[in-house]
Predict the structure.
Amino acid sequence: MSAIPPATLEGWYALHQVFALDWPQIRALDAPGRNTLAAAGRRLVEELSTPGAGWSAAFRVVAGDGADLLFVHFRPTLDELAEVQARVRASALGALLRPVYDYLSITEAGLYHATAEAAREHEPRSAGFRAAVEAAQAAELATPHVRSRLFPEVPEGMKYLSFYPMTKRRAGAENWYTLDVAERSRLMRDHGMTGRQYAGRVFQVITGSVGLDEWEWGVTLFARDPLEFKRIVTEMRYDEASALYGEFGRFFTGIRLAPGEWEGALGGAAA
């Protein structure tokens, strides 16, 4: 059985919420009312954004089919994400938010290479195979690089965001899930090498959503220069893993809202 799934490591649950603002109701407010609403939105995000056991951030959407705001939340448990979602809905700002899109997932590190190595040395799904995979998982989890992928911190100075979901094709000749694990490992290694060229310029968070949402993975990119999104996505589209096996959903691009920018985002006076 060569088409075995790769071992994975998981970290924080993630929720991406995309909203349109109810502009008729906002325009009906006077200037002090809009500023009061902006202050409430700012306080909400500040309360949810404290680093530690997860964090939240708000972005002003520039492209996204009429969307205005995108909230990104990372939390250790699904229960905590549900509480965050309830707090957003119950807030003063929540009454004026109209859902456009949401996406549930969990941070993930795929161990394709370790799985392929274990499959070369042991019968897949045997006790020896499982022991080798578990040893690799423990070793990977101890590395700072993998931990930064599973428990990402707010990127310093990277105020631009691009988010999109994706799936691996599983129809016809381009069926990712029938490939030998060694071949999938090769393809993902090559794909990863392209991404590493953007280290320090783009911070990437991969989240898995198999069994949680419609797509299979979410990709969240942060950068200081939004042009880096075009560069990295274009280059990665030419990788074999994407060219033959990648299918992509909607893209949402945004700018992180600083505390003093909420009034402008909601049509109020500048802070």
Notes: Residues 13-105+256-265 form a domain with the Alpha-Beta Plaits fold (CATH 3.30.70.1030). The mean pLDDT is 91.
